[in-house]
Write a structure and sequence with these properties.
six-stranded antiparallel β-sheet; 10 helices; elongated; alpha+beta
Length: 378
């Protein structure tokens, strides 16, 4: 019990440090991306903090999986590096005795990963999509910031306003450049305001301005002055109840959906806790390190295994999404192969007579050290 408590405490400390580093990197990366979208006018500046939180929540399952894997691996590697594992084996204890304390530490993380994958991540995707769609469905004029050129939702119109005044968002000194099938038209006006038509459509009503159309110097060039000029600014036809991103669909709805996209998304959500559990067990036999060598090789191998495993899950998910494989025959084979690999590694470590067994390698290392000392004395 003392050993198990000490082991869990050490793994929790390693997990805390690992999670802090990984989470900080992901939040920083997300912050750069969201701020870039806000600067480009793709999202509202007031939604930046919320979008960062939702994006960070989407990354959490992957971060928790990698944190659990690295933390167990680091603790096992340290016991080999400090020769504690030699004492462990010499006391007649097996490597399988590590499974219970590691699972007692890792199972809460597996459950946390399952909760994030099945509940929290879809909710975060849904809320993030709602924030982005809400901004995209706003009128073009409401997106305009004073002193900046902004492109309309239909990508054929550019707005520039010098200022906004009043509660009704009356814009002053308006410049509008429009490109359509009739050519290029430029409209300048002292002020403009949004009016709503009888069917709910929205118009930008410009007052006291001029309109230029065509190419200056050509015979078809036109210019006109107006006291009032209406311009429709309702974005292109968009269904407010458009189909949501499949990543944002709740798990219970996915179970009732038999489409390939829904089955592929369900496969991904099942794979997250399964991957977390298998990698935690894999870290036990994978943690061997030569005390005289560095321990960084184990971490590099662990990262390669993690990314390879994730890419294989993505590959299977793509096959289900494209209809090349069925969900029933796709969600379990990869995890079964990984589990068999864990069993094979445990069997290899438990085979004390194998020439590459850790205990045999450490014994050979000690014999070499003794031989070197005798040679020096001679």
């Amino acid at each position: 019990m003392i050993f198990q408590r000490a082991l869990r405490r050490e793994m929790a400390s390693a997990a805390g440090a690992t999670f802090t580093v990984l989470f900080s990197i992901s939040v920083t990366w997300t912050l750069i991306g969201v701020l870039g979208k806000a600067a480009g006018g793709k999202v509202a500046s007031g939604d930046v903090i919320a979008l960062i939180a939702f994006a960070a929540l989407n990354y959490l399952p992957t971060i928790v999986i990698l944190t659990s894997f690295i933390s167990v691996l680091m603790v096992v590697t340290r016991t080999y590096r400090d020769s504690e594992m030699v004492v462990w084996f010499a006391s007649g204890l097996s490597l399988t005795r590590w499974i219970q304390p590691v699972l007692s530490f890792g199972l809460p993380l597996v459950l946390l990963t399952a909760g994030l994958s099945f509940i929290a991540t879809p909710w975060a995707q849904l809320k993030s999509s709602e924030y982005v769609d809400r901004f995209e469905k706003r009128e073009d004029l409401q997106k305009v910031s004073p002193g900046q050129f902004k492109e309309s939702a239909s990508a054929n119109r550019i707005f520039f306003v010098e200022g906004v005044a009043g509660e009704k968002a009356v814009v002053q000194n308006v410049f509008v450049n429009t490109v359509d099938e009739h050519g290029t038209a430029v409209v300048v006006a002292r002020e403009g305001v949004i009016n709503i038509g009888p069917k709910g459509e929205r118009y930008l009503v410009l007052k006291n301005g001029r309109r230029y159309q065509g190419t200056p110097g050509q015979s078809d060039f036109q210019t006109m002055e107006f006291e009032s000029y209406s311009m429709r600014v309702t974005p292109r036809n968009q269904d407010l109840d458009a189909e949501r991103n499949i990543n944002a669909v709740p798990t219970m709805e996915l179970l009732a959906d038999n489409s390939n996209f829904a089955r592929a998304e369900l496969l991904w959500r099942i794979a997250s806790p399964a991957t977390c559990l298998i990698l935690i067990l894999l870290a036990i036999p994978l943690g061997f390190v030569n005390p005289r060598a560095g321990s960084s090789a184990n971490l590099i191998i662990a990262l390669l295994i993690f990314f390879s495993y994730s890419n294989m899950v993505k590959l299977v998910e793509a096959s289900v999404k494209q209809g090349k494989a069925s969900f029933v025959m796709s969600w379990w084979p990869l995890h079964l192969i990984a589990l068999l690999l864990v069993v094979a590694l445990f069997a290899w470590r438990l085979n004390l007579n194998h020439r590459y067994h850790p205990l045999a390698l450490l014994s050979a290392l000690k014999r070499n050290r003794a031989a070197d000392k005798k040679a020096e004395l001679k």
